[in-house]
């Protein structure tokens, strides 16, 4: 094969190589968003979040949430925390938690998750308002 023919073959194959490469994402391309940012005070309150791919705006299912905490840090009471437990999902990309929101005011929901196919850990802190 002559150098010119090799160059032509390489140029012809280049677009095919670009098509077959997967789109590369970064853990920063994802975020949790509150479904409701204002909730009623009480025991057994359900807090729901969606995990969103910011590039497409689509929900991301099957993430593994391995750390979660809810506390009153926005009101200067970080030590005022409540238990929080995962609940079954009702729709893909939506993650639900049951907690006791014992006081009205600002609450911070902290989540850490692994997303399938991505390296790194997604960590988000979301602020919600609890009303009487």
List keywords for this structure.
single chain, 132 residues, mainly beta, Immunoglobulin-like, five-stranded antiparallel beta sheet, five-stranded mixed beta sheet, signal
**Whole-number average pLDDT?**
89
Give the SSE order as H and E letters: HEEEEEEEEEE
End-to-end gap: 79 Å
Reported for the largest beta sheet, the result is: 5 strands, antiparallel
* Share in helix: 10-25%
Instruction: Compute the number of structural domains.
Output: 1
Low-confidence stretches: 16-22
Note the total helix count. Answer: 1
Characterise this structure.
There is one protein chain. With 132 residues, the chain is mainly β. Helix content is 14%, strand content 52%. It contains one helix and ten strands; from the N terminus they run H-E-E-E-E-E-E-E-E-E-E. The protein has one helix at residues 3-20; strands at residues 30-34, 38-40, 42-53, 58-59, 64-72, 77-82, 84-87, 94-101, 105-114, 122-131. It starts with a helix and ends with a strand. This is FixH family protein. It holds the Pfam family YtkA. Keywords: Signal.
Secondary structure layout:
Blueprint: H1 3-20, E1 30-34, E2 38-40, E3 42-53, E4 58-59, E5 64-72, E6 77-82, E7 84-87, E8 94-101, E9 105-114, E10 122-131
Parallel strand pairs: 2-10
Antiparallel strand pairs: 1-3, 3-4, 3-8, 5-6, 5-9, 7-8, 9-10
Explain briefly what this protein structure is.
With 132 residues, the chain is mainly beta. The chain is built from one helix and ten strands. A hairpin with a 6-residue loop joins strand 7 (84-87) and strand 8.
